[in-house]
Amino acid sequence: MLRDHEIRAELKARLSSIHASEPDTLIVDELGICQGLARADIAVVNGEISAFEIKSDADTLARLQTQIQYYSKICDRASIVVGHRHVDAAKMLIPSWWGLWIAKKQGDNIRLKQLRKGRINNQVEPYALAQLLWKEETFSLLEKYHAAKGIKSKPKKDLWVRLTKTIDLDTLKEEVRATLRARTDWR
Q1: Cross-strand partners of 55
Q2: Residue 79 has pLDDT above 70, yes or no
Q3: 117 φ, ψ to 5°?
Q4: What is the mean pLDDT of the chain?
Q5: Are 29 and 13 spatial neighbours (Cβ–Cβ below 8 Å)?
Q6: Which residues have CB under 8 Å from 104's CB, separation 6+?
Q7: Percentage of residues in the chain with pLDDT exceeding 90?
Q8: Is 95 exposed, middle or buried (0-12, 13-18, 19+ CB in 10 A)?
Q9: Scanning 38, 45, 107, 161, which has the fewest C-beta atoms within 10 Å of its C-beta?
Q10: Per-residue pLDDT averaged across 60-64, rounded?
């Protein structure tokens, strides 16, 4: 039976190989979404935010619907990577824009096969996307766009609201991706 850590290691190795020649690509484990209400198992941040949810044969799909809701708020693309046990159920549960991968054990190796390529999510929510930023990062962007006056001491939720009202969604996407890629301390 495949375990999460086995699939994660293989997926991370595959993604690292795919993006090895892209210095502006960040691969991060456990990306918190909507202030930690969900976590992407692995996220790839470059010209897009792509997230991967892993469901090994030992897992259940009980939380998947909730995870889909949160991923849909911030991800340009999302995929689920499942063990053989969950393929049919995952096909029925995931939105049409999600990708689907299967993980199989062959001897001592794990093989990943893409069953369905994901598409672009056109439902990204600006406020949820802004929540990926820390307070200092949000304030810096507000300063950049000349919208920081009178808000520095406000709670971060107020800064996120101001940011989403200051710049359009495409600009916000670019700024959030650039900020995440530049982050050196993931706490």
Answers
A1: 82
A2: yes
A3: -80, 135
A4: 95
A5: no
A6: 2, 83, 84, 110, 111, 113
A7: 94
A8: middle
A9: 107
A10: 94
pTM for this entry: 0.93
Mean pLDDT of 174-184: 96
Q: Read off the pLDDT of residues 101-110 as tens digits, 9 standing for 90 and up.
A: 999 998 889 9
Q: Going by C-beta distance under 8 Å and a sequence separation of 6 or more, which residues neighbour residue 47?
A: 177
| CATH 3.40.1350 residue ranges for the chain | 4-116
Nearest to 129 by CA among 28, 26, 34: 34
The pLDDT of residue 3 is above 70: yes
SS (H, E, C) the chain: CCCHHHHHHHHHHHHHHHCCCCCCCEEEEEEEECCCCEEEEEEEECCCEEEEEEECCCCCCCCHHHHHHHHHHHCCEEEEEEEHHHHHHHHHHCCCCCEEEEEEEECCEEEEEEEECCCCCCCCCHHHHHCCCCHHHHHHHHHHCCCCCCCCCCCHHHHHHHHHHHCCHHHHHHHHHHHHHHCCCCC
* CATH placement of domain 4-116: 3.40.1350
